[in-house]
Design goal:
The complex is a heterodimer of chains A (323) and B (367). Chain A folds into two domains: 180 residues, Rossmann fold, CATH 3.40.50; 127 residues, Rossmann fold, CATH 3.40.50.920. Chain A is built from twelve helices and 14 strands. With 367 residues, chain B is of the alpha/beta class. Chain B folds into two domains: 321 residues, Rossmann fold (3-Layer(aba) Sandwich); 33 residues. Chain B has a five-stranded parallel beta sheet, sandwiched between helices. In chain B, helix 1 crosses helix 2. The chains are: A alpha/beta (323), B alpha/beta (367). Chains A and B meet through helix 3, helix 4 and helix 5 of A and helix 5, helix 6, helix 7 and helix 14 of B.
Chain lengths: 323, 367
């Protein structure tokens, strides 16, 4: 079945709700409107207002009440309307949601999913194009995942909802409308596994979410120049599936990490640090990073210069191969 | 700064500071002699838990303690109003409510000693872990109450209700105001119990609000009531009525328990820097224990023998707490990696092993 990434999420949410009556969806404008990106389209009509409900416009309230619902035995799926709107909920996520399982010595589970459309490239106004995943990756007690394609979107949202840990689920909003075949009867990969999205032997590109397609395009372009580029789709950003990353870079001996989020202390920093700790003598070049810059997300007329694109990725590939 | 018209604000009171029994048209109690005596016993034991914990902190056995002295009636009154099915969401000072919910005081000490970050099973006790970031728990309580509603567990006398504790300082937090908005919007079975103890560390209530706090409820669309928080009978009656309203589907209530923090904010605080001793002396005349004792004597519900037996119980409890605190083991260092996640990660397993190997490298296996 051909599905857009947004529709695949919608179908995944539907499947999760059909499977478990304790799954409830809450967020701003997710009911009749179906969410500003229509990811929850039709779900309130089919499952009722008790299970799919609009909230007051207060993100801390969305996550804070989701914590209480989880204590009551529900499996809340929160929608934060845009990446830049998650910060009012940051305290509840970091100080409460992330720590509850540990401080209760495991007696209070937090099966809460926080869905966040993230990233730029859609010509949006301020606060609608950010990549805040690093804050959550840095927070113990949370897990962070991001699908890059419709099939992963369909299965990963269901796996995230079934997990007993709190998960921040980053949705690559600029890929919402991209279509692909989704075999809903397939056996999905485990949620905590990265995947080799394209095999290659000269260099490994590591990416997640919206940058996977960018890297796949770059790898295809590089092939025309006779270069064999491998692409690792992280899928899970926290915890990292370092076995997959290590195995790939051990073979290719070169790595470039690509993400939209700012560079300093981004996911690329952690991957580069670990690769240097573990593969110091095996790598041919230092790990390079192609990222957003350490600035506020710029006005959209210049976002193409801020965002990593095919050319910037290829430029980094050239630099790595030149070592 | 303008002085708030506190003196003219109506206050539900069933016991005068002198122990005279009053009657109120909307809130009253009709308790057995044993129940009146049990209230007094609770007040004395809770104060003793507090005194013993404070002493243990002074002797270096606890890192910190948040004393409740002065707030016993508000906590015991509201705590005893809870039915077994009701769920309480406390701050870090609700030692009296914890007592009513059957949480061993020793587990509270574990938190302040640094032996744990929680210590009890919230689901079993129906008493959430202490919440230190002020106001956060009001949203958790609201969400829990939303769940009660979804479960259809409201509507009659057996319905469930939630109580969210917070203070005058927390009333300024966005989360508390969001909890008010949400509870009103969804009409959930919740009681917001604000202990206005007049001080947020050194900040007076007048900095938090220009109007009496209970009046805020009206703007959110549900009733608010101020009760004498040093009157255990009034605190009990008002909370019981609000919980019953919640469990029968009548939505939220805000209770402002007007009381006074007789001690410091915590054992790290020094209230002599910001408030007058005459203020404290005036509140001592409204002491919740003394007024209940006066009531018992006036009504001939207790004699010296009863008072002595309660004191003996308090002594025994204090001794047990002290012994338990001194004997409390430190957690295994490697246990800090446990329960971070419901499903453990490879990453944490690696870090746990790293620390374990490092520690094992010292002579004797320790460090």
């Amino acid at each position: 079945m051909q599905l857009t990434l947004a529709k695949a999420l919608n179908e995944g949410l539907r499947a999760a709700m059909e499977r478990d009556p304790k799954v409830v969806l809450l967020g701003e404008d997710i009911g009749k409107l179906g969410g500003v990106f229509r990811v929850t389209d039709g779900l309130q009509k089919d499952f009722g207002e008790a299970r799919v409900f609009d909230t007051p416009l207060a993100e801390s309230g969305i996550v804070g009440t989701a914590i209480g619902l989880a204590m009551r035995g529900y499996r809340p799926v929160c929608e934060i309307q845009f990446d830049g709107f998650v910060y009012p909920a940051y305290d509840q996520i970091v100080s409460q949601l992330a720590k509850m399982h540990a401080r209760s010595k495991g007696s209070v589970a937090m099966p809460v999913v926080i869905r966040i459309p993230y990233g730029g490239g859609i010509g949006a106004v301020e606060h609608h194009s950010e990549s805040p995943e690093g804050y959550f990756v840095h927070t113990a007690g949370l897990k962070v995942v991001s699908p890059s394609n419709p099939a992963d979107a369909y299965f990963m949202i269901q796996q995230a909802i079934a997990s007993n840990d709190p998960i921040v689920f980053f949705e690559p909003k600029r890929r919402y409308w991209e279509k692909a075949d989704v075999d809903t009867d397939a056996t999905p990969d485990p949620l905590w596994a990265s995947r080799i999205a394209r095999a290659g032997s000269d260099l490994t590109l590591v990416a997640y979410g919206p940058m996977v397609k960018t890297c796949l395009d770059a790898a295809a372009a590089a092939e025309e120049e006779g270069r064999s580029i491998e692409v690792v789709d992280l899928r899970t950003v926290s915890p990292l599936d370092f076995d997959t990353i290590r195995e790939s870079v051990r073979r290719t001996r070169r790595a470039v990490v690509v993400h939209e989020a700012p560079r300093t202390l981004g996911v690329g920093s952690e991957i580069a640090a670990r690769l240097s700790e573990e593969l110091y003598y095996e790598m041919e070049a230092p790990v390079l990073r192609v990222t957003g810059f350490d600035i506020p997300y710029p006005p959209s007329r210049v976002e193409e210069e801020y965002l990593p694109d095919l050319d910037r990725v290829l430029h980094a590939v050239d630099r790595s191969l030149a070592y | 700064m303008t002085v708030l018209p506190e003196a003219s604000t109506p206050l539900v009171q069933l016991l005068t500071p002198e122990g005279e029994r009053l009657h109120h048209p909307d809130y009253d109690v009709d308790l057995s002699d044993d129940e009146y005596r049990a209230f007094y016993r609770d007040l004395v034991l809770v104060r003793r838990i507090d005194a013993e914990a404070t002493a243990l902190q002074r002797q270096g056995e606890l890192g910190l303690w948040a004393p409740l002295a002065g707030q016993e009636a508000a906590q015991v009154g509201s705590g005893r109003a809870l039915r077994p099915q009701d769920f309480a969401f406390p701050t870090y000072r609700e030692h009296g409510v914890a007592w009513c919910k059957g949480v061993d005081p020793l587990t509270l000490l574990g938190l302040f000693r640094g032996a744990s970050n929680g210590g009890w099973d919230p689901q079993e006790k129906r008493f959430q872990l202490y919440t230190i970031v002020i106001g956060s728990q009001t949203l958790h309580a609201t969400g829990y109450a939303m769940g009660i509603l979804k479960d259809g567990a409201v509507g009659d006398a057996d319905g469930e209700a939630v109580i969210a504790y917070f203070g005058d300082g927390a009333s300024s937090q966005g989360d508390v105001n969001e909890a008010f908005v949400w509870s009103a919007a969804y009409h959930v079975p919740i009681v917001f119990f604000c202990q206005n103890n007049q001080w947020g560390i050194s900040t007076p209530t007048s900095t938090q609000s220009r109007i009496p706090l209970y009046k805020r409820a009206e703007g959110f669309g549900f009733p608010g009531v101020r009760v004498d928080g040093n009157d255990v009978l009034a605190s009990y009656a008002v909370t019981r009525a609000a919980l019953d309203a919640a469990r029968t589907g009548q939505g939220p209530t805000l209770i402002e328990a007007f009381t006074y923090r007789m001690g410091a904010h915590t054992t790290s605080d020094d209230p002599t820097r910001y408030r007058l001793s005459s203020d404290l002396e005036a509140w001592k005349l409204k002491d919740p224990l003394e007024r209940m004792k006066s009531f018992l004597f006036k009504q001939q519900l207790a004699d010296a023998t009863f008072i002595e037996s309660v004191e003996a119980d308090a002594d025994a409890l204090a001794a047990r707490i002290r012994k338990g605190c001194l004997e409390m083991p430190d957690p295994d260092p490697l246990s800090m990696f446990d329960d971070v996640y419901a499903e453990q990660t490879v990453l944490l397993e690696e870090q746990r092993e790293e620390l374990g190997t490092y520690l094992a490298g010292f002579v004797g296996g320790g460090h």
